[in-house]
## 1
Amino acid sequence: MKIRTRVQLIIVLSVVLAATVSLILFLSIRSVNKASQKMEITAEIVKGVVELKILTAGYLLHPGDRSLIQWQSRYDSVTKSLTGGYFRSPDEKSPVDHIIKNLERIKTVFVEITIGMRKKQRSGKQENTFSRALQDRLESELLVKAQATVSLVFPLQQKIQAEFVISQKRSTLLTVVLLLIITLGIIGILLWINQSVARPIAVLEEGTRIIGSGNLDYKVGITTTDEIGQLSRAFDKMTHDLKKTTASVSELNREITDRKRAEEQVKASLKEKKVLLREIHHRVKNNMQLLISLLRLQADKIEDKKYADMFKDGENRIRSMSLIHEKLYQTQDFANINFGEHIKSLVDGLFVSYGVDTNKVSLNIDIKDISIDLENAIPCGLIINELVSNSLKYAFPQGREGEISIVLRPISEDELELTVSDDGIGIPEDLDIEQTDTMGLTLVKVLAEHQLDGKIDVDRTKGTQFRIKFKRTD
């Protein structure tokens, strides 16, 4: 597959992924909003029915035009909310129909009572025993129906509130699952880009330098079918042909001219590929920023602190990967990253995200000028993000002072050791990271053992210390 085709495919997939996530989150938020609106309408109905009962009793005690107008207004308001099409499911429609039927009966009885009272006021005559008994029976039925209606609306309100809670939890779970899938997908795409584009470009660039210095026995040896592979085979053929040329001055000058022209073409092609690769990192960074913004928008609507913290952790994980692409977009070396600068930016962002007082919790970073490639930088950044986040959240409770330390050092020519530690209260002795069910430590274990192909050790002697040994990639 050509590099330009890969770039176009990645751009299309990124746009489709962002649009899909946006649509799903939008539908999820709309579902929660509809449930919230239904809960508010139910609360208004409960309030209206209770007030209607109070107004009914008040009118029976002190009949008058003002009380009648207030009763009619409240009855119309409650009836409009019940018949507005908000309750469509069979579980909701049955009690709502019962409430409406009670209200209609209440109105019928209320109208009969008001008509009787008005006739009495106009005639001014004493009521006979039968009329008085009928009036008393109607008033008694009116109060009973009003109380029965009040008893019906409270279970309806509880059912709507339960549906709202379920809708909110379902929306949160869907968002978390999407976040996990997107994170794993982005990691896979980035590793594929590094394996198929960034590393061959670095090898070809090194081959250009060696051949340009006069070593015609050097073979680049890239066998891919894309433009980089074609350039590699062209280089190898060029060096082979140069070795077979005659020693004549004219022939040698011609070969040198052709060789310089080929070198300029290669440099121009490499420059174009770097521009394309930089555009990939820029677009991936922008898409990650979009995901962070969408997660923050969703988190703002969640009142449960547990789920809000889960969204904050997700934002920090994506921000960790986004910082790497920002560094790659700004650098000229796509094969290696200045890891010290990257980690300083990452941890400073975590301190700000968790609102940590740097006068109480200090940070010590000892990474020197170590540069590592993209294949190791992404999992290392995610591991540091998880371990520092755990330290900031749990190691220093109730304003406790302490220090967080991050050290990356070579322990041999091809092996590095990453140490993340704090002098806080430490993790529980009964917590086994091999059997843990927390997402953060599980992610650390998977990244350390499967992505870095390394070994992880935990020291709980003083606070908590994680040591991860892994090999450099070529």
## 2
Amino acid sequence: MINTARLFTDERDYVKSAIARKGYDVSTVDRLIDVLSVVKGKRTALDNMRRQRNEQQSDQSIPVEEKRALRDEIAGVEKELAALDAEASDLLYDVPNLPDDGAPDGADESGNVIVETCGEDHYHCQAENP
């Protein structure tokens, strides 16, 4: 699984090009970046609403209806955030690991170079000359 922090740095283009080398659609990465950005904003808003709720609990001058409205709003944002977290998790599982810089391009092992072969006797392997 890729480190999502790399998607929000100057390494974003490297990650996208490495994934493209494997033959995967980079639009999944773009969608993941969008979802993670929304999640970050929702988490910040939720934290602020919770802070506001905690401050209101001790203030008797605030009407109960206003406190209930804030509680209901918090519950709604928590549901949205849960759905976004699930989508981000699904997208993250769809994004492949980054290939090694020395790995050949391609979606599967068909582009790999044979470095060593072993016959019937697995104790005596020979390195092939590329």
## 3
Amino acid sequence: MSYFNHYQQRKDYIILLIIWLIALAIDRTWFFLDESIPAYDQSAHLTVALYHYKIFQNFNIFSGDWWLSLWQLTPSYRVPFVYICTVPFLMLFGRGSDQASLVNLLYTTMIIISVLLVYSMAKITVCIPTFNRVHLLPYAIDSVLNQSEQDFELIVCDDGSKDGTPELMSQYTDERIKYIRHLQNIGKSNNMRSGFDAASGEYFIKFDDDDRLTPNFLASTAAILAQDSSIDFVGTDHWIIDINNVRDEAKTQENSHRWGRKNLPAGIVNNLLEVVFIQQSFQVGATLFRRKTLQELGYMQANLQNCEDNDLFVRLALAGKNGYYLPELLMEYRYHAEQQGINRAIPYLFDKIRYLENYKFESETIETIRKNRLTETKLLLGLRLIEKGETQKGRELVLAGQSFSTPKAWTGLGLSLLPVGLRGKAFNALRQVRG
């Protein structure tokens, strides 16, 4: 559906609403001016409503006889709720056919409003959390606006950017775009959660402000969810692109192979826990979820700023949810310099330890892998801390992780004896030797 057709359909519904309201006004005007006996429907409704009004004069919630009398009043073809709701209006406006018609008018209004609310809800919510990436954010936004599936809302949640992001967002006039700006930095996960809390779509996807969706991502993944209600999320493969939006075929193939997507068959994943924990094949920015599934399970953990996507997939697998893999390159993941460096690595490794320590798996194989990864992560974090100059904490973690690689551990402990100013050069020299 093009954006023009989407807009035209909304315009048509507004016209229908106006016609409906005019017809309703004429109907009610005629009814109020007519002096004849009310028709059967109005008379029957008023009579039964008055019976309910009478029984509520002797309201007794703890009496079984009172509840039985209430139930016996109701016709078999209509639930008592409609009459119970009528009673307060009879108490407020009085008892009569005109007053009863006001209730019918209210019900009709509620139906109209509910239809409009349902129609105004987008099919898909796309969330882009952002922080100080005004130079890359437009590419992400444009990739959503250029989707072949146009029934979406786009939520950009800004974690207190200081680089002109508010000015950029003020230039977008598309009514489907919602901009949530936090005046102060509230953290990566909390920022993502604010976008999820504001979502109204049946389906939900979050991807980062430096990545992009290909034009058919929403249409292809949403079609699978629409066809099978047992599927909770659909993940795809993705391209690797550089800072200039150039796709790297070789790195893309390497990435797909590294994370187990190359040999992952299309369809519902049977061994989901192994796929999301051992192989880590699903990428959250290339996955469309049923929003109600995430509401039931809980979205990103507020206390995890990294590895929150790994944690989400593990929780989905442990909860018995169904994941579907679509082996098509429908998203673009960007590699660039901002993702590198010791200041990015250290917080990531701290959170990875917290993530891995949160679980203890029943499967002996998976639990062994978890323990090995935890040991490896402690070693890597210890080495990074030694490199940065946090010697004591770094040595403790290196000793805790030495069983993963004794040579690495002893090398790190040896480098910790160097002056802090020389450690960075020494570590870089070792990395170059290792290639």
